[in-house]
Specification:
By secondary structure, the chain is of the alpha+beta class. It has helices spanning about 5-20, 70-75, 145-150; strands at about 25-30, 40-45, 45-55, 65, 80-85, 105-110, 115-120, 125-130, 135-140. It has 3 helices and 9 strands; from the N terminus they run αββββαβββββα.
Length: about 160
Amino acid sequence: MSKSVLTGSAGEEFAKHLLESTGGVVTMSSDKFDREKDLVVRYGDFEFKVEVKAQAPLMKHGAFSFSANQLKKLQGVDFTIMIGLRPSKDWAGMIKMDSPIVGGVFQVRPNFKYTTWRDSQGNGKFMIPVCQESVRLVHRLSDEDLDRLSANTFKAY
């Protein structure tokens, strides 16, 4: 299994437990590559489709970045849970490991603002800055959870 799939699965499990701890009844998608959502959470009569993203953020931009093909999916769910993980290496002090994004668990509404960009290979990407009304910090990871979830991250931006 690839590092990104391992990280994603661990993030989804963490989000499941977090939502259950707030009284939600969570059903995980049976398809790891579900094009609509990762899980469904029910609070009483209300049901929400949720996407989960666990990754090291773009530190210098204070944002999370995704492939362009993920935009429609993130805008199509009721909310996204973004989990800010530690990058695999501290590039000579360029990355502030104590950034509030690292270890943050954010709830992102589908009306988020984003910008587009291209990575060094020319691939289309978009980034969602965490400093906006559609993004809300809902939890801080313990050091133990941050270490466990960050074990498979591999990018440092």
